[in-house]
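#dry-run=false #mode=assembly
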Amino acid sequence: MAQAVKTPRIPLDKQILMTVNGDEAVAYAVKQSLVDVVAAYPITPQTIIVEKFSEFVANGEVHTEFVPVESEHSAMSACVGAAAAGARAFTATAANGLALMWEILYIAASLRLPIVLAVANRALSAPINIHCDHSDAYGMRDSGWIQLFVENVQEAYDTTIQAFKIAEDERVLLPVAVNLDGFFLSHTLENIHMLPDEAVHEFLGGYRKIPKVKVDYFDEEVPLAINPARPLSFGPLDLYDYYFEHKMHQVEAMKRVPEVVREVNEKWYELTGRKYGDGMLVPYEVEDADVIVTVLGSTAGTVRHVVKKLRREGKKVGMVRIRMFRPFPHKELAEILKNAKVVGVMDRGISFGSYGPSFLEVNTALYDYKEKPLLVNYIYGLGGRDAEPSLVEKMFEELLKDAEKGVVENKLRFLGVRE
Amino acid sequence: MPAQTLPQIPIKKGEPAYKLWIFEPGWKGELPLILNPRQLAEQKRPAILPGHRLCAGCAAPIIVKLASFAFRGPTIVVNATGCLEVATTIFPYTSWAVPWIHNAFENAASTGSGVESAIKAMKKTGRLPYEHVDVVIFGGDGGTFDIGFQALSGAAERGHDFLYILYDNEAYMNTGIQRSGGTPKFAWTTTSPVGKVLPGKMQHKKPIADIMVAHRIPYVATGTPAHWLDFIKKVRKGIEVDGPAFIHALSPCDRGWRHDTAITIEIARRAVDTCYFPLWEWTPEKGYMLTDRSLAIARNPKLKQPIEKFVEVQGRFKHLLKPENRHLLKELQEWVDAVWEDLLRRATNAPK
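#status=ok
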């Protein structure tokens, strides 16, 4: 949740109050971020992003080349080409479109291209369903992308701008996916505060800067781009003698992400007065909590509301919103959770034959602790099913009972599904 | 054509050849199109350097080398996955003297779209230190006829300014000679083997260049490394037009076609002599125009050779030469004749 600060560099009255939905917020953020190439293909519930952005292009409000590609596969491919040529590139998709991009997601990350992708999270087919869940985002978990999940429209705007800053940081150079819940955020109007254009330009340092690297056949450091001034080959064949080391570079880059996310979160706080926990985790009422629930995305708002209510009733409950899913902040999360009696892990997606993907992470985070909470996985909201407060409250009641008993019988539970 | 100076760094003895392709920011002008063979030999500037690991007898590097003789200045090459890509860029080495990018198999055209869009965006904002940067895409038949066709068709429809050169070795050679949409009828491949019932591939080659003509892009042409002058000229035209251009180059493959490594160029020549692979170019203004040897054959039909001349030197067709398979050869001849007659009817410069 955004926390107020007394004197941001751009005070609230100098920020622009707009009523927009999540998709429009992302489109405005991209517009202000001096993006050179946007390549995108329509898919619900992402489409408003590209529709809105097309208006900016049609009205000459941006310098951006808009590439209305013939598929999401080509959208990501064009972003790879554009980013390799030194451009700031953006695309947006959801569900099946993200699945179609899958091959190129890995290539974008492995070529270390700072592309930003907005995902309006939506269930995967079949059966075809246009509504929100996180199965699309979980599917790209291992692709080498940084994955951020936002809670509200304001955060969708803030995070899209931050994403470019994080991706292009020379310590990182990895693509970033900004996840906003389909319909719950993509199509829901909120009042948000936007920065003046110049403030965003300044925050990002203007157009994209190309990092320089040392390669064998040039004496001086050369721009890491396909560039006629210093020709490089991008995307060569890389066999067992080098591939592993290149993968290690990605591993190392991921390790450096948390410090950059933290810094960017702080800089944004100084600039706007808004910050999201430490940039990775957003805890709420966790200090003395017996029961803590972890959650991603917009459902955090509902969970917070229920926590507030239960706290008024004297129940020791809390919540952690996982804002950054990749790289996963295992240690930071474990430090928050370790003293609880029971932790409920909410997953809007499931790995069939296993648990929800974030449940596996929470288990991993806590495994090494001698004293640790019991863990329960709640699968909820698949295909856009609403996680209403009464359901969330029921979950907390169950978890409080588990805490009392000190034992968990059923680790994998389904919230809000007909028997 | 008068001799003109090459880029700012002339090759000095002992200096690496790639330096010729370094265009310092602010470079202006246009590289001359050298068509005089002697001058070309003296001033040659292939963008693909020796040391690559393509097979002896492979036509692909010849096609790339000839194409690069026609580059007019700063050029970015995009390469689809395939023999050319894997054999020229085995890390930590590269054979490419020009900036080069490989993304995946089916997306060379969309990757090229992205590169071209980046160039445009940089130019618009005064960040491009050149007057123009050309984008040339190389893809094989698998990456063009089949898996990459959607991306190519989409990029052509959107009108990006690039030249796509298809080097067509008529099968998935990189994975071990599997049939593709570019494989001709009756050719043996490892997935269209010659068996007791089936005499090789049972479908004809997809008319990919005609399909690109149907997109009504500014320039489409065919070429072979045997007709090198014709090919170089066509590449330059493809680069110079504003918008997408497509060149279909036949690329004999001694491993897949089962021919002697020394006769690659001869086979390409026979492909044209037999009208199996006619040479032409198409523009929206002039329509189909025959070029080089194919124009000569149109003017003097006696020059046209029977399809046996193309088939007899290739192991992939050897079953066609058996007496019991004469009817298959006849069918192939009839198909070649029908396609050629159709082309003659369409070609605006063919004698009527």
